[in-house]
Amino acid sequence: MAVPLPAKEKKQARFSVSLKPFFLAILPPMLGVGLLILIWEIIAIKTSSFPSPWVTLQEAIKVFSDPFYQNGPNDQGIGWNIFASLKRVALGFGLAAAVGIPLGFLIGRFKFLSGMFNPIISLLKPVSPLAWLPIGLLVFKSAHPAAIWSIFICSIWPMIINTAIGVQRVPQDYMNVARVLNLSEWKIFTKILFPSVLPYMLTGVRLAIGTAWLVIVAAEMLTGGVGIGFWVWDEWNSLNVPHIIIAIVVIGLVGLILEQILVAVARAFTYDDVPS
Predict the structure, then answer these.
(1) CA neighbor of 109 nearest in space, from 198, 157, 170
(2) Distances (CA, A) of 129 to 189, 213, 215, 234
(3) C or N: which end of the chain has fewer Cβ atoms within 10 Å?
């Protein structure tokens, strides 16, 4: 026969149970960040030219005290550089979505198009993002559209492939019912394909935005102008290592925010469990 716990022990047990998820959610990330800072500090002690976390934090406070200053075209605050990079990513990524998602639907829907485009996608998908940059410079004769072109061509593949896979995995029974009911292609798309493919499509969009953000940093290092990639390269030429570390953290944070926005969109439009 079970012996009931005293009221005080019951309260303590409930308290410990309610706090356990909190500590499991907060403690591991804090330990991870603490370990990273410890390794950073050790490297700074061993390497005199490498800034410590404290020095970098002081520089970050200075940088973000006026992020939107302008002293000419090549000397602008970090806020303007992030804004310029985000504009390029929005343009390149938007164009890739406008072309890649409809193309993915067509490739997944029609075997003829699948056979026509699959060899091209398999050939071009593994190409390094920066290999496309000279092609963009040659065609567009300018660094800004060339960077947008690099983002476009590198972020289009995940959207095409994931959308096409989603279409191909629509249960055949659904398509048989559509055939029996003699539904038009538009009805098939809006009533069957789009709701079924949406989780796959959003996965492709999430992968593509990560790729786009990676590409823009590298492309701006080579093309110059205004942008977070150019800011990193400019600080390297000035041997301003604390600013380079600040840029690395900023790039990571912006990429994380973009990823979480798309995770929130995916959760809002699908019933599937979307990992963050």
Answers:
(1) 170
(2) 32, 11, 6, 21
(3) N
3-state SS, one letter per residue, for 255-273: HHHHHHHHHHHHHHHCCCC
Q: How far apart are CA 151 and CA 212, in angstroms?
A: 5
Distance of CA 73 to the CA centre of its chain: 28
DSSP conformation letters of the chain: -PPPPPHHHHHHHHHHHHHHHHHHHHHHHHHHHHHHHHHHHHHHHH-TTSPPHHHHHHHHHHHHHSTT-BSSTT-B-HHHHHHHHHHHHHHHHHHHHHHHHHHHHHHHH-HHHHHHHHHHHHHHTTS-GGGGHHHHHHHHSSHHHHHHHHHHHHHHHHHHHHHHHHHHTS-HHHHHHHHHTT--HHHIIIIIIHHHHHHHHHHHHHHHHHHHHHHHHHHHHHH-SSSHHHHHHHHHHTT-HHHHHHHHHHHHHHHHHHHHHHHHHHHHH-SS----
The residue written with tokens 């005293």 in the block is: 6
Cα distance between residue 231 and residue 242, in whole Å: 12
pLDDT tens for 62-121 read 999 988 888 877 778 889 999 999 999 999 999 999 999 999 999 988 889 989 999 999
This model's pTM is above 0.90: no
User: How many whole angstroms separate alpha carbon 129 and alpha carbon 87?
Assistant: 18
Contact 270, 198 (CB under 8 A): yes
